[in-house]
Amino acid sequence: MSPRWLDQVTSLARERLPEPVFRYVEEGARDEVTLHEATAAWRSIRLAPYVLRDVREVDISCTLLGDDFRLPVGIAPMTLQRAADPDGEIAMARAAAATGVPLVVSSNAGSTFADIAATGVTWWLQVYVAVDRSSTEPLLRKAIADGASGIVLTADTPVLGTRYRLPDEPPVWEVAEPGWVGVNAPESIGLTPADRLKAMDLGPADVGWLVEATSLPVVVKGVLRPDDARTCVDAGASAVWVSNHGGRQLDRVVATAHCVAPVRAAVGDDAQVYVDGGVRSGLDVLTASALGADAVFVGRPLFHALAAGGQEGVTRALEELASELVESLRLAGCSSLAATAGIASPDRGFGPPTRP
To answer: What distance in Å separates the CA atoms of residue 271 and residue 234, rounded to the nearest whole number?
Structure first.
């Protein structure tokens, strides 16, 4: 067995989670091509480290949406966290606060915004815009009142991508308890995705609307194309989040690892660039930084860590990523995240830095 905690959490989570919940977290769209390419994509990128550099002191801190964090790792939005641990998002928030990383709270969270905020964590709200825009506003107002410092617009889900399951496998919503999701909704909502229809006519104006409605920085999540990234920034986004929704929407889309550099080139220094999808180690975090990402966000492994060890399990996972990142930076001859520019290339060639 690997001595790494992050290599153990999936099997531990499987032992402790109801099978429909585990399957829901693990599943991808259709044939799961994109799902299974995610981690391998990071490993396919090669690095050319510097030598003769002073790496006695290594700085892994970063500033995201105006707030300072200890390391360039955040917790991605995930529902059903109370199925993993009774404290759900509260345990996740405490771990995030303890390790100095941002928490992105799902709009379908099972813990109240007020209880999450009480942990002292810096948190952002993930939101799906509803067909009727005005019906989204109460959730936004509640998040603002309870201290959210950013809004993450999920832009890649006009409809829910098809996910296959065995004929006798019950859907997760048959075992989910009502209190596990949607507790911050202004009115009671159903558990099934059909109960939470999303707008199919999202456009650049919605980015501007969110900025105006909340006076908070807005991140657009689900961006893979450089031209879309530029459109988001021109519409008012403070950051673009390179994501394919964990391979859960359109199958056969490109791995996020291969999209970071083109997106960074498209937005330049006009916005920050975040990425998720298949990040499993501090070396992956280094690679993302070298390609131009300001931060990575981690989902499934931290859900598994929550199921495997609660708050302490998540803290252990984040600390493992931090330790691996420090070692990786030293071995790459980089004393800071900014110094990683140009040491990685998706095509295994090396040229001028891609990060402004």
So the answer is: 10
Which residues, other chains included, contact 181 with Cβ-Cβ below 8 Å and sequence gap of 6+? 79, 80, 108, 109, 110, 191
Residue 356's pLDDT band (cuts 50, 70, 90): very low
Give the global pTM.
0.94
Q: How far apart are CA 3 and CA 61, in angstroms?
A: 26
Tell me the domains of the chain and their CATH numbers: 5-343 (3.20.20.70)
Core vs surface per residue 298-329: b (16+ CB within 10 A) or e:
bbbbbbbbbbbbbbebbbbbbebbbebbbebb
Which among 284, 276, 244, 255 has a CA at the least distance from the CA of 6? 284
**304 classed as catalytic:** no
pLDDT tens, 86-143?
Answer: 999 999 999 999 999 999 999 999 999 999 999 999 999 999 999 989 889 999 999 9
Residue from 36, 245, 258, 304 carrying the catalytic annotation: 245
Measured CA to CA, the distance from residue 94 to residue 8 in angstroms comes to: 22
User: What is the C-alpha separation between 53 and 154, in angstroms, rounded?
Assistant: 40
